[in-house]
């Protein structure tokens, strides 16, 4: 899918501003994260691979090119916030927090294990670097609005990024928050919608048709862009675009593939919340070589 | 020992009820999990998908119920709570017979972690006038009691469990169950253990161990938390003189709370409550978590020994 906007293509040669990863590095990191996601879910024999794999490219680009966070000071009040509102995609969060130095490889093995740092759904009380305790859909945008309003009150440049699932958009609370964010002209609140077209039971098309998701946000007064959520160039540019919007909240509707990167999980509702078996793990790892 | 999850009993009941054309199933994108999909597969025309929108689901169900349908609406126990005020004002207050099922109740739910483990649903729904509140213990009792709900004229909340647990009743025994009447599974004179849900099979194991140590316990499956079988509790107060309650729920306000309220007002007797002691859960295997939170079989045994000493 072509992004509707912008044509600049960054290549792995045009290596970046200082300290910022090249597209090639981002792609490499995303692949490592995908391997960790699949391994975590396999080891726990439970969890949510589909929505983790659809979201991971965005998380990698966001954390590696934009987020101001420090693994040595995870509670720094001046950090940017990332709110994974679809908290079941926790393996994606743990994978990128590992790449950023917040979690060790050992920590990742505690996913869904009693007493483990990596709880089934992202939890700010258990995991360094996690800003929001999720698991109940539809709550994260309100929370992100709160952290954004606080930054404005403080006169701080910190930014709040929120990731929402497309099924999650069916929760009315999302639209209560969307309306309030525009009313308050919140320019430091940025949202990604992981538009993978699948929810828990089935395709959104069969559960609750979403029609034109971008048009809904436009109707609420948000600045809206769409992009291919697996095209690293497009994602990086989307993040830059978001940061250029300062007078109102901005949303990127990222068109993604649920289960992206593992052939038998791709676009397959059964891998919303199911683990691969041993044989499937081997296939997945081969594909993610 | 056969192991089946009580949520499968709910799905099975919906299928058995389907010959009644007024039965209608309402879903919020968790039909695979609550097992209402069993009904959907056979009767898509009488299954209404509302997407991930629990608050909407409650009032849509209320509207259907006042128009001649018998709606069975389900999601995880915890997400019914998101629509608590809708249930309170839109269903319980006008006394509309909407049947709500909350699956994945309790910390036994397991590795999903604390956000998915409702430990307060029985308490909050029990506080609502007009509501019937149930938490059956196995496949067959869940099936039987859900079928009975279709004939009741009250709104109801039924909690089911995610994970497989022992089948306690055969079909014949289950057919004798009645909403609002506790079922005595074991008779004994030293202590009465009153349990619900996944804790009933733990209570049965505890009673066996107690009897090996010369203590005879009564075990009651209190599948209906409201209306509570007060007569049964009063007579057990005379017969046994002390109680243990066992529930996969906060010790505040649920089965333990209900039994305590009845005892203090009517027939005081010592009581020990086994349950979640005022903290949230975490990820882990269901049975492992019960042990970690002092809710295993051995903890029921210990509670029984303590409470007998308090007589
Ligand atoms: C309030 C609430 N209702 C129901 C659920 C159960 N649930 C978990 S994931 C999910 C589907 C989410 O779909 P989507 O938002 O599209 O996420 P993704 O496809 O990115 O995994 C559902 C219904 C929940 N977590 N929270
Ligand atoms: Mg989705």
Can you describe this structure in just a few lines?
The complex is a heterodimer of chains A (289) and B (311). Chain A is α/β, with parallel strands linked by helices.
Blueprint (SSEs and pairs):
The complex is a heterodimer of chains A (289) and B (311).
Chain A: H1 23-44, H2 49-65, E1 81-84, H3 90-99, H4 105-108, H5 140-154, E2 160-165, H6 172-183, E3 189-195, H7 204-207, H8 213-219, E4 223-228, H9 232-244, E5 250-255, H10 278-287
Chain B: E1 3-5, H1 6-17, E2 23-27, H2 31-34, H3 37-42, E3 47-49, H4 54-65, E4 70-76, H5 77-82, H6 84-92, E5 99-103, H7 121-126, E6 132-134, H8 139-149, E7 156-159, E8 164-166, H9 171-175, E9 183-186, E10 191-195, H10 199-212, E11 217-221, E12 224-226, H11 230-239, E13 243-250, H12 255-266, E14 271-276, H13 286-292, H14 297-309
Parallel strand pairs in B: 2-3, 2-4, 4-5, 5-7, 6-7, 10-11, 10-13, 13-14
Antiparallel strand pairs in B: 1-8, 6-12, 9-11
Helix pairs in contact in B: 1-8, 4-6, 10-14, 11-12
Question: What labels would you give this structure?
Answer:
heterodimer, A: 289 residues, alpha/beta, Rossmann fold, five-stranded parallel beta sheet, 5 strands, globular, disordered N terminus, B: 311 residues, seven-stranded mixed beta sheet, five-stranded mixed beta sheet, 14 helices, binds thiamine diphosphate, binds magnesium ion
């Amino acid at each position: 899918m072509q992004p509707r906007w912008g044509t600049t293509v960054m290549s792995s040669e045009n290596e970046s501003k200082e300290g910022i990863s090249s597209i090639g590095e981002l792609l490499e990191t995303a692949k490592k994260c995908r391997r960790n996601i699949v391994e975590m879910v396999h080891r726990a024999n439970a969890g949510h691979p589909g929505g983790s794999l659809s979201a991971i490219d965005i998380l990698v680009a966001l954390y590696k090119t934009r987020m101001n966070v420090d693994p040595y000071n995870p509670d720094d009040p001046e950090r940017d916030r990332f709110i994974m509102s679809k908290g079941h995609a926790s393996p994606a969060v743990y994978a990128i927090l590992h790449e950023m130095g917040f979690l060790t490889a050992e920590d990742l093995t505690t996913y869904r294990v009693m007493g483990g740092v990596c709880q089934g759904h992202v939890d700010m009380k258990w995991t360094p670097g996690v800003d929001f305790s999720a698991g109940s859909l539809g709550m994260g945008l309100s929370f992100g609005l709160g952290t954004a309003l606080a930054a404005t009150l403080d006169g701080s440049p910190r930014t709040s990024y929120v990731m929402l699932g497309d099924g999650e958009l069916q929760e009315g609370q999302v639209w209560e928050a969307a309306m309030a964010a525009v009313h308050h002209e919140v320019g430091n609140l940025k949202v990604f919608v992981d538009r993978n077209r699948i929810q828990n039971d089935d395709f959104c098309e069969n559960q609750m048709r979403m029609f034109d998701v971008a048009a809904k946000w436009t109707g609420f007064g948000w600045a809206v862009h769409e992009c291919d959520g697996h095209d690293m160039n497009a994602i990086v540019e989307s993040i830059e675009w978001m940061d250029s919007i300062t007078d109102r909240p901005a949303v990127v509707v990222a068109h993604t593939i649920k289960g992206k990167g593992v052939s038998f999980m791709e676009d397959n509702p059964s891998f919303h919340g199911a683990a691969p078996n041993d044989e499937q793990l081997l296939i997945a790892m081969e594909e993610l070589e | 020992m056969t192991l089946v999850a009580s949520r499968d009993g709910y799905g099975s009941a919906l299928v058995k009820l389907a010959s009644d054309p007024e039965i209608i199933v309402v879903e919020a994108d968790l039909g695979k999990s609550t097992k209402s999909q069993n009904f959907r597969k056979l009767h898509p025309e009488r299954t209404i998908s509302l997407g991930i929108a629990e608050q909407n689901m409650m009032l849509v169900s209320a509207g259907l119920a006042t128009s001649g349908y018998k709606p069975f609406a389900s999601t995880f126990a915890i997400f019914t709570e998101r629509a608590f005020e809708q249930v309170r004002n839109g269903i319980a207050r006008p006394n509309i017979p909407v049947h709500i099922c909350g699956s994945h109740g309790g910390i036994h739910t397991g590795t999903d972690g604390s956000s998915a483990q409702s430990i307060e649903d029985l308490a909050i729904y029990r506080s609502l006038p007009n509501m019937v509140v149930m938490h059956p213990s196995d496949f067959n009792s869940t099936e039987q009691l859900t079928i009975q709900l279709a004939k009741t004229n009250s709104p109801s909340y039924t909690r089911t469990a995610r994970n497989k647990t022992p089948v306690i009743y055969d079909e014949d025994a289950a057919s004798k169950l009645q909403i609002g009447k506790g079922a005595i599974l074991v008779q004994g004179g030293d202590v009465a253990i009153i349990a619900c849900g996944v804790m009933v099979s733990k209570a049965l194991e505890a009673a066996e161990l107690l009897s090996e140590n010369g203590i005879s316990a009564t075990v009651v499956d209190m599948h209906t938390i409201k209306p509570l079988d007060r007569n049964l509790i009063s007579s057990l107060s005379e017969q046994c003189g002390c109680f243990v309650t066992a529930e996969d729920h906060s010790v505040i306000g649920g089965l333990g709370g209900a039994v305590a309220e009845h005892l203090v007002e009517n027939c005081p007797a010592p009581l020990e409550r086994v349950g979640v002691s005022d903290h949230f859960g975490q990820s882990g295997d269901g049975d492992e978590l019960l042990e970690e939170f002092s809710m295993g079989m051995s903890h029921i045994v210990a509670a029984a020994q303590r409470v007998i000493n308090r007589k």
